[in-house]
Structures are given as C-alpha cells and as structure tokens.
Amino acid sequence: MKYLKQIIGIIAILLIGIFIGKIVFQDTHEHTEEELAAEGSIEWTCSMHPQIRQKQPGDCPICGMDLIKASEVSDTENTTTFSLTKDALALANIQTLKIGDAEVNSEDASKTVFGKIQIAEDLEETQPAHYSGRIEKLYINYLGQKVNKHDKIAEVYSPELLVAQKEFLKVAENKEKQPELYNAVYNKLKLWKFSDRQIQQIEASNKIIDYIPIYAHVSGVVTEQMTKEGDHIMDGKAIFKVANLDKVWAVMDVYESDIANFKIGDAMKIYTKGYPNETFEGKITFIHPTVDKMKKTIQVRVELDNKKGLWKPEMLVNANLFPTKIKENNEQITIPKSAVLWTGKRSIVYTKTKDAQPHFEIKEVVVSPISETMYQVHKGLDSEDEIVVSGTFTVDAAAQLQGKKSMMKVVAKQEIEQSEVENLNLIVDDYLKIAENMVSGNESEIKKLTIQTTKDLQLIEKSIKDKKVKELLNKVSKEFHIFASQPDLKAQRAVFDNLSKSVIQLVEKVSLQRELNVFYCPMANNNEGGNWINSKTEVLNPYFGEAMLSCGTLEKVLN
C-alpha cells in the first residue's frame, strides 16, 4: 500500500510536468510548411499575375500556371528591380541577349535605296552669246558633243559689231594723235570678246570681219542645245550647256522614316544593271534640307568618280548604306530594336541579372537607328549587360503588376546646366539638415538653418534659367517660407509634409545627379500620413523624433 501511494505520486508529478511543458513550449514550436498551409498562413500567387492571392495551392485562374508561394516572389525594395520564375520565363517565351553578342553584320547594317545618276551641278557651265546677231554657222550640232575651251563654235553676223569695227578703223588712223581714244575703242572691242589677235588683224588689213567667230570659254560634253543655225541670238542668251562628266552624282530618294540612318560621310556601295558584276563606292556629300512635296522623300547625294566614262546621266542605280561608324568603332554598343520600348521621346530596356532566380531591371537609354533592325546605344547600358530582346512587353507588364517602375512610370528628367545642378543640390542639402534636426528635436539649430536656407533661396532663384525648373523652385520657396514662419517645432512638423512634397517633386522632375530615398509615415499629421526625404536608407522619422523614430517605410528611390 505504501509503495502504491509512491507510484501514484510519481505518475502525478510526471503528468503535471508534461502539462506545464506543453504550456511553456507550445509557442516555440516550429510549424512545418504543411502545418502553415493547413492553417492558411501561406499565400500562393502567380509569377505572371502577382495580383492573384490564394490561401491554397492550385492553378492561376488567368493563365493556368501552377501557383507558387508568395515568399518566392521578389520582395526587393528597389523600385526598378523585380523577379520572374523560370516557369514564367518559359511560358512567356522571354529571351535575353548579352550585349557583346549583338553584332552588326553587313546585312543588318545595309539599307538599300534607289535613285539615278545626275550631272554634278558644280561642274555644269553655260556658253552665252556676248552680243546680238544671227548665227550663220554653228559647229555644235548635237547633244553629247565634246567641246574644248577655245574651240570655234559658231560664226555670227552682227550689225552692231560691224559698226564697232568701222569705228575702230577710223580711230586707228589717228591713234598717235588720239591714243586715249584709240585705247578706249580698242578695249570696247575686247569687251565684245574680240581677241587681241583679231583686233590686230582688223587693224593690219584695214578690213572688217563680216562673220564674227565665237570661241568656247568652257569645256565639257554638251548636255543641252539652246540654238540652231540661222537663229537670232541676244547678248547674254545661252547657246548651249556643257558638263564635265569626270565626276557625277548618284542621287537617291530616301523616305522620311529612314532618313535617320543616313549621315554625311557615310560610305555607300552603288550598283547598276549596266554593270551587274561590278560594285562602285562613294561617300554621302549632301542631304537635301527639304522633303519632296510629291514623293515625300529626301534626296541623298553620293559623289562618284567617272574618269572612265562609265556613268551616264539618268542611269538608274541602287545603293546600300554602310555607316562608317560601324567600321571605325568596334567598341560601340548595338542592340536589336525589339529590345527597346518607347515612351514618347524616351526609350527603355530591361536588363537581366545573373542571380539564380532571374531579376529584371528597367533602364532608360539613349539610342539612334543604324539599320532596319539595330540601334546604337549612346547612354544607359554597358557592354556586359544582358537585355531582354523577346517578350519585352510581357516583362514590362509584370513590372506594372508588381508595382515596380515600368514603361508607364518612367519619369522624364529636366536636364540643366552643371552650375544650376550644384545650386539646387544646395537647397536639397539644406532641407536634409532641417529634417535631421527635426529628428533630434533641435529647435535652435532648425532656426539657424531656416535663416541660411532663406539666403540660399534668394541667391539661387536668380540663377535658374529654365522656366519649368524655376516654377518648381518657386513652389519649394513658398512652402519653405510657410515652414520657417511657424512658431515652434510642433507647428513646423504640421506643415513639413507640404515642404517635403515640393522638394520631392523638384527631385523627380530635375536631374540632380544623386540618389535620395522617399519615406512615408501613415501616422503623421494626425494619421493623414506624411512624406520626407533622406539620403540614408534607415528610417529616421522627423514627424515624431525619438517618440516614434522608426515609424515609416521606404516608399521609393529617386535617382
């Protein structure tokens, strides 16, 4: 009986110990994923449609993909970076390309245009008549005839030249007595394009020339005939036109949509059916400044050497453009046009990180077309970047659904001069110092800073030239003066949100070449919420200071 009581006592003590242990340690039990799922603590989402949130695993009601745990979706605070699962990448057929692999081959770089051979206008000249009369004999009879300078081209009967010759012979009889008159009449004949030899012949023979010969003062091939034998001509009227065909122009018609591909100095290869097995080269020397009203094209001119006489005016040609920059600069960054999304005048691409789970980041770039399929990148990418080249719109849609920066959320930055950037950054620094002292509650230091900021604003407002930037700064100045006029820290905290929003708007719209963090506290301003800026990522609340120092979340990063 005695032992039985002892056994019962021991059992009772053990039961009590087990009961107490269960109570003490039940909260520290690590739940398995299965237990959490059973309790509904795990959320399931779709990698392609993050707005889908369910308590149980299954299929996405939109695309049918298997749902994944929400914890697997990127929870990065970076507003430009987000992730997609491998299944999502495969389903959307998203393909990427390392920039170094995006080579520009000759087929991509070429742009075929069509045109014809034209006479080089700077080598085209006109042979005029220098006096009025009738053409008795014309030695230039057909187009394409070769004319050399000083060739005899016509004989003309001119009554006024007959009178001029008679006047000269009469004066020549008394040239020793009237040398000045003789020289005047002599020079008059020279103005009629008589040569010294002709004048001396008239004087020596004492006979006038009835049919005055005209000699060419130009050389080339006759391209246009303006007169024929027996025609009456007038002083200054053209007899014919000639052109030097040692150099010709290949003039191509380029559509407006393609004109950005063509630059003066770019090399072109010219082809024609007349010489099907030959290729000719030339450089663009002129791009017409206006668009043809009828054809809606722009003329691009290439100079061609024609000393062999192969090229004939009006000959049809086609040409391929090979930008010289591609040959000269092997370090340039080129990307497929499929990688670029346009938002008005701005362009963006998505780059992929090398992480185990693919992360994507939006980047704004500056590009220009170099062919029908390729862009040259002037700013925004490095040669080691890997970019999305297929499924770009799908990636952008995923960014929008995850609340990240996307094509629709890219903010245009106002570019200003470096001196203006430095001045505006001075105002931002003043704001950051004020916010820092609001955290610590140092009212005397805040008062000193408001005095200094007032002086800075007065000086800087005069230096800003851009109208839009000046409007943004004026708004900051207005809100700051309201802040500075408050009697104490409590009143300043009540209007600090308006000042912060004006500074945020300035930094969002103007490129200040720095990174700033925007925080938000939902309990500020009597639970209406309030923003502030800090250069640090640590939450330091200026609305409550030490009372609620860590109240707030990082809302976005301003670059």
Task: Report the mean per-residue pLDDT as an integer.
Answer: 77
Number of helices: 14
Structural class: alpha+beta
The tally of domains stands at 6
Biggest pleated sheet: 6 strands, antiparallel
Tell me the radius of gyration.
44 Å
Shape: elongated
Question: Considering DSSP H and I runs of 4 or more, what fraction of the residues is helical?
Answer: 25-40%
Topology, number of strands = 28
The share of residues in extended strands comes to: 25-35%
Essential attributes:
559 residues; 32% helix; alpha+beta; conserved putative lor/sdh protein from methanococcus maripaludis s2 fold
Give the arrangement of secondary structure elements.
Elements: H1 2-25, H2 33-39, E1 44-45, E2 53-54, E3 68-69, E4 81-83, H3 86-91, E5 95-98, H4 106-109, E6 112-119, E7 124-128, E8 133-138, E9 146-147, E10 152-157, H5 159-172, H6 179-191, H7 196-205, E11 211-215, E12 220-225, E13 232-233, E14 238-243, E15 247-255, E16 267-271, E17 280-287, E18 297-305, E19 316-322, H8 324-328, E20 333-336, E21 341-343, E22 346-352, E23 359-369, E24 374-379, E25 386-390, H9 392-401, H10 418-440, H11 443-463, H12 467-484, H13 489-509, E26 516-521, H14 524-527, E27 530-534, E28 553-558
Antiparallel strand pairs: 1-2, 1-3, 4-23, 5-25, 6-15, 6-19, 7-14, 8-10, 8-13, 9-12, 10-11, 12-14, 15-18, 16-17, 16-19, 17-18, 20-24, 21-22, 22-23, 23-24, 26-27, 26-28
Helix pairs in contact: 5-6, 10-11, 11-12, 12-13
